[in-house]
Amino acid sequence: MIKELETIVERLEREDLSFDESVDLYNKGVEIYKELIFALKEAKIQIQDVYAKIQSLYGESEIES
Amino acid sequence: MISLEKIHTVSEVTYYIESLINDDPYLTDIQIVGEVTDSKERNGHLFFILKDEFTSIGCVCFGAVSRGVNLVDGQTVQAYGDVRVYPPRGIYRFHCKSLKILPQRGLLYLKMREIYNRLSKEGIFEKPKRPLPKFPKRIGVITSRNSAAYQDVLRTIQERYPVVEIFLYHTGVQGEEARDTLIKALSDANLEDLDVVIITRGGGSADDLWVFNDEQVVKAVYNLKHPVISGVGHQIDTVFIDLVADYAAHTPTAAAQAAVPDRSQITDYARSLLQKAYLHLGQKVKNSQVHIENLGKELLKSMNDKVLNRVHLTFENAEKLTQSMQKHLLLCEKRVELLQAKLSSLNPEGILERGYAIIEKDTLWVKSAWKLNKNDELTVRFSDGTVKVIVREDRSDDKRT
C-alpha cells in the first residue's frame, strides 16, 4: 500500500494529467493514506498485545522454577 | 566368674569335691602303675608317692605294717584301690587295697615309652590340628560293626544331625589280629571321599586298647587325608592315636558329638544367616532408593534448567522480534508521513483555494511555459470557475536557445 501511495505521489509530481485526473488521483492517495494510518495503528496495538502476552507467560515460568 | 548369689564355706566346697571323686566309677577299683618315692611309715600306715615321667599321686596303704607290706623308693609297683579325698587337708590320695611289686618296670610301659620316643623324634605328635567340618556330609566310622561304640556313634548322630551318610570301615579292635584289619580300614577310608573320620571303641584294659598305640596304626592315622576324631576307651584312657587325631574325644558318644553339629546349632546358624541377609538386603534396597531419588532430582533439575534456558532464549528472541517490528513500524510511519506531506502539497484543489490558477491545454495541465505556442487556446481554472484565453506570444525561439 505504501508502494501504491508512492506511485500516486510520483505520478502527481511527474506526469501530465488533466485536472480531474489529478483530483481523482489525489483523492485516491488520501484514501490510501487513511487506510495506511489505520493499519499502522492496528499493527502497533497487535505487537503490544503479543509482547504483553509473552511477558506474562515468561513471568509465570520464572515463578514456577 | 565369682557367683554373688551364694558364698560357700570351705567345707561345702571340699565335701562337694569329695562326693565327685568318691562317686566316680573311673576312680574306684582301678589299677595304677608307677615308681615309688618318698615312702614312710606312720602309725602303722604306709605313705608314699607314685610317679611317672610327668605326674605323681599321693598314696596311702592303711595297716601296711600289720599286713607286712613294705616299700623302697625306686620300686615299680602295680597298686589296686580307689582315689579318695582327705577333707581335713583338702587333698586327694590313692587308697591302696593291694600292692604288687613288679620285678622290673612293666613291659608294656617300657614298650610304650619306646614307641612314644620314636614317634616323637619323627615329629609325628607335632602335626598341626585341622579344623573339623562344620556341616559334614559323609562320615567314615572305623570300629567293629558289633561294638557298643558303633551303636553309640550311630545313635548320637541320628539324634543330632540325621542328614549325614555314614560309612563303616569294620575292623577288629582288640588283640594282635586287630592291627592288620585296623590298618586296612584306615587305608580304605583314606581312598574314600569323606569329610571326617571317627576312630572309636569302648573302654577296656590297657591290653585291650593296645592296638591304638601301635606304631604302624598311629602312622596310618597320621597319614589320613581327612580330619580325624579319636574316641577310644572311656574318660581317662589315652592312646597314641589321640595325639595325632585332630580332635581327641573321651568316649565314642563324645566323638560323634564332635563330628556333627546339633540341630539347634544349625537352626541358630540359619537364623543368623537369614537375619544377616535380611539386614543386608534392607540396606541395599534403602541405598538404591536413595540413589534413585537423587538421580530423579538431578534429572528434574537438569531438565528444568534446560527448559528454563529455552524459555529465556525464546523470550529474548521475542523481545528482539518485537523491537525490530516496532522499528519497522516507525520507519513505515515516517515514510507515510513524508508521503502525506508530499500528497497534501500536491492537492490540485488546495492550490486553487490558495488563489493560484491552473492552466490547461487540451484538458491537460500545463506546467511549463515552454510547452505553449502562439495562438494556443488555453483554459485558466480558478477556484470558482474557468476562463478561455489565447496565447499571444510565441516563445518557441527562446525555447531553442
Termini separation of chain A: 46 Å
The average pLDDT value of chain B, as a whole number, equals: 87
The averaged pLDDT of chain A comes out at: 86
Give the biggest sheet of chain B: 5 strands, mixed, barrel
Number of helices of chain A: 2
Helix content of chain B: 40-55%
* Poorly predicted sequence stretches spanning 5 or more consecutive residues of chain A: none
State the secondary-structure class of chain A. mainly alpha
| Principal-axis shape of chain B | rod-shaped
Shape of chain A: rod-shaped
- Which residues of chain B form runs of ≥5 with pLDDT under 50? none
Order of helices and strands of chain A: HH
In angstroms, what is the radius of gyration of chain A? 21 Å
Binned strand content of chain A = under 5%
Estimate what percentage of residues of chain B fall within beta strands: 15-25%
Tell how many strands the DSSP assignment of chain B holds: 14
Helix/strand class of chain B: alpha/beta
Which pair of chains forms the biggest interface, and how many residues does each contribute? A-B, 29 and 30 residues
Radius of gyration of chain B: 64 Å
**Number of extended strands of chain A:** 0
Strand order, main sheet of chain B: write it out: 1-2-3-5-4
Fold and architecture overview:
The complex is a heterodimer of chains A (65) and B (401). Chain A is built from two helices and no strands. By secondary structure, chain A is an all-alpha fold. Chain B is of the alpha/beta class and 401 residues long. Chain B contains eleven helices and 14 strands. Chain B has helices at 10-23, 64-67, 107-121, 148-160, 176-191, 215-222, 240-244, 252-259, 263-345, 348-353, 396-400, and strands spanning 30-42, 45-51, 56-61, 76-86, 91-102, 138-143, 165-170, 196-201, 228-232, 247-248, 358-361, 364-365, 377-382, 385-390. Chain B is rod-shaped. The model of chain B has no long low-confidence stretch (mean pLDDT 87). The chains are: A mainly alpha (65), B alpha/beta (401).
